[in-house]
Amino acid sequence: MQCPVCGGDCLQDAGSVLATLPEVFTPCDRCMIVSLDKRRPPPADYAPPPPCTCGRRVLDDVITTCYQIFTEEGITTGTEPLGAIATPVINPGFVMKAPPLLPTRSLLLLSPLPDQTTAERIVREVPEVQGVVQTSRAVPGIGPDGALATHTLLAGCDVQANIFPTSSGDLVVYKELSRLHLEFPHPVNPKVRAVERAIRRERAEIFVDACCGAGTLGLAAARTGTPEIILNDTYGPAVLWTTVNLMVNQDALLIDEVVLHAAYTDLPPARNDPFLVAEGLGDQHITIYQGNFDRLPATIPEASWSLTALDIFGKDQSQACTAALDRWIQAGGGKAFIP
Ligand SMILES: [Zn+2]
Ligand SMILES: [Zn+2]
After folding, report:
1. Are 24 and 155 found together in one domain?
2. Is the dihedral of CA 211, 216, 221, 225 positive or negative?
């Protein structure tokens, strides 16, 4: 599958990604493990060694190399703490027991600081860096007020995989960090657990992930063997990555094929009336829509007798949660919960 961002080979099927995990960030006997104080600038005379013969290098040395480029380009002054210049995101992201040793193209840098020239230089000169994203203040996506926000990919590619454990095995969830919000995997994912428990408790036959983001909860529901799964999001990039993630995890689901009903890489940023984008067909039936969640019950009758997860934006406010549940019920939706 071609990467929709860079056209390269960034995407692999879930089985291939999972097979790399035991070794991908593990040092060889010759790897040099250094640890620098992230609260201070790196030592002035410190020259990070090149990658080991196995191709890996410790995170602190990679970040120090980036730090020195930031300073040479005048983005920073050299007095900033090492840990302050960027948020490092490793690819693939999963729960690790030891600090990662980074192979080629396995790190994304998220930072408000860099300009185009600096970002391009980092991707060219630092082999471990896959992409540089300039962050804005807003969380990427459609905010509660309906405003569209994104970060900016300055250089390289910003597609990253996260591994989410479920009771039925690991899910691989790809996303584009400039257009979807960042997530860090935890040993136990409370939302995945909440979905699995609700499906068991309600003996759900139809599960709707009404604000699906990159598709994690709907795909976790699909892994339980629930016969009918509907994933939906109003935000185009979310639907794009949900479609990719359905294809990536296809072998672990009870489907034989994924049928595309639209050019999923070319969806509008937002859409109101639910629009069918893709379908997984087999012993399970998995559909992906782009649209407003409160229009689903009018478009898809199944939604009214489904179990629905409403994983809404900004749900730390209980008011917003109650409002979303009300909207769902008033629209004629079935049983729903906030995971
Ligand atoms: Zn790519
Ligand atoms: Zn090594």
Report:
1. yes
2. positive
Q: What are the residues whose beta carbon lies below 5 Å from ligand 1 (ion)?
A: 3, 5-6, 8, 10, 157, 159
193/332 same-domain check:
yes
φ, ψ of residue 107 to 5 degrees: the values are: -135, 135
Bond from prior residue into 92 cis (ω within 30 degrees of 0): yes
Place of tokens 């104080």: 37
How far apart are the CA of 93 and the centre of ligand 2, in A?
20
User: Which CATH number covers residue 293?
Assistant: 3.40.50.150
| Tens digit of each residue's pLDDT (9 = 90 or more) over 87-144 | 999 999 999 888 899 999 999 999 999 999 999 999 999 999 999 999 999 889 988 7
Spacing, Cα 156 to ligand 1 middle (Å): 8
Ligand 1 centroid from CA 18, angstroms: 18
Take residue 124 and report the two structure tokens written for it: 């060219």
